[in-house]
Write a structure and sequence with these properties.
The protein is built from 8 helices and 9 strands. By secondary structure, it is of the alpha/beta class. The strands form 2 sheets. The chain has a 7-stranded mixed β-sheet with strand order 3-2-1-4-5-9-8, sandwiched between helices. Strands 6-7 form a two-stranded antiparallel sheet.
């Protein structure tokens, strides 16, 4: 991907989230997000008294959870100003997750929910995260599963005018993610999936047909790794 392509992807992603921000509360507001958050909490690090980065924080749902789990300091970073404005209880920083505006060895943990598909290059993203983690620091992230992207399931929402908007998303295969983890000198501690009709089984409109068609398809990937 060229620098021009990367800039265009970033701009298009930011524009989509600016449209989404008025409808994006700081809590999991659909069945998939609730299942994703439950899976993340199953791998949640001990953040008590620690300095933690909520990377690509959106409206701050993980920032709130970090505060509730008694993190010593929570820093919330996002590139979308209307999203970042909704974050409470954290030190808010506007910036891109591809070039983090922090010194090396700053954070005890980095949490990132449903955002690495917005990274133009997964290896560079992982390297940046590893750089800002302290020794023995922990990374916990989730994203839409590459298998779901291959199956043609888009990440989309309806804006305030009820128009369907597709959010730009780069598919990073699991092998590439794990290779990037190793290249960044991180060690994988756990990999989890949220699968249709299994970890995700909450009823919603037309859910019976959705679960029948996609049963067992991985929809979300969660990875926990340590420096």
């Amino acid at each position: 991907m060229t620098s021009g392509d990367t800039a265009a992807l970033t701009a298009n992603t930011r524009a989509a989230y600016e449209r989404w921000a008025p409808l994006y509360p700081p809590f999991p507001h659909n069945p998939l997000m609730r299942a994703e958050q439950a899976a993340m909490l199953g791998l949640w690090p001990d953040v008590r008294g620690r300095c933690v980065l909520d990377l690509a924080c959106g409206s701050g749902r993980y920032s709130q959870l970090l505060v509730e789990h008694r993190a010593g300091q929570v820093v919330a970073l996002d590139d979308c100003a209307p999203m970042l404005a909704q974050v409470s209880g954290a030190d808010r920083v506007r910036g891109t997750m591809m070039s983090l505006p922090f010194a090396s060895d700053t954070f005890d943990a980095v949490v990132c929910g449903l955002a690495i598909g917005h990274a133009s290059d997964i290896a560079s993203w992982m390297s940046e995260v590893a750089r800002v983690l302290k020794k023995s620091g922990l990374l916990l992230y989730s994203d839409f599963h590459p298998a779901a992207a291959r199956a043609g399931l888009p990440r989309s929402f309806k804006d305030q005018e009820d128009r369907q908007v597709t959010v730009p998303h780069s598919r990073h295969e699991l092998a590439d993610q794990l290779q990037s983890v190793a290249a960044a000198n991180l060690n994988v501690e756990a990999v989890r999936e949220v699968r249709a009709g299994m970890e995700l089984n909450e009823a919603f409109k037309q859910s019976a047909e959705f679960y029948r068609r996609w049963h067992g398809l991985p929809l979300v990937l969660i990875v926990r790794a340590r420096k």
